[in-house]
């Protein structure tokens, strides 16, 4: 997807486009999206005041999702729409007015570059990153609809194994709420047949009014969907991503029926 990053005051020469589409035109009914797939920070924002270690932690992105989504797109001839920039710059799975859309603190880490932002600063981040990403998803759904290609929207996320000092027992969770949750429920049923898995139903997070992307695109159109949360230690490297892509290809296909 070609976007002119220089049209935004947030970006300078050398910045990457805010969204990329992997395997455009893929024939699969599955449309994969990655709200937090990237951890890049626009050059004009420096490091947001964070050191290298903080910028690769779970606070900055969904670890493993980029590689997992790309493998699924290749294996299933599916489209994967993925975000480039860190959720600390702007969270593409939040509404414009959400308090944590540009978080000043995340999991105990203060983000100096997000302190005391003006309304203009906040609007620039949304216009440069959030809106093009959401527009790319809408455009892909519209393209598919125009040619009679069905869409099952699959949001790929990952979660940290320990949060707030508490270990999380699930390997994967399936999130769902409004709209048509039938596919998410079918995913749960198939995953629960995997003897080696502890599967979360709206765990470790619950899909609710905090979520933005799936409710925006799936609910009004009645699209089947699932928001998947895979534990980050399982997909942190290429071997784990390959194994989980193979598993999810099988589970997704079985759930579709």
TrEMBL record:
<dbReference type="Pfam" id="PF05013">
    <property type="entry name" value="FGase"/>
</dbReference>
<protein>
    <submittedName>
        <fullName>N-formylglutamate amidohydrolase</fullName>
    </submittedName>
</protein>
<dbReference type="InterPro" id="IPR011227">
    <property type="entry name" value="UCP029730"/>
</dbReference>
<dbReference type="InterPro" id="IPR007709">
    <property type="entry name" value="N-FG_amidohydro"/>
</dbReference>
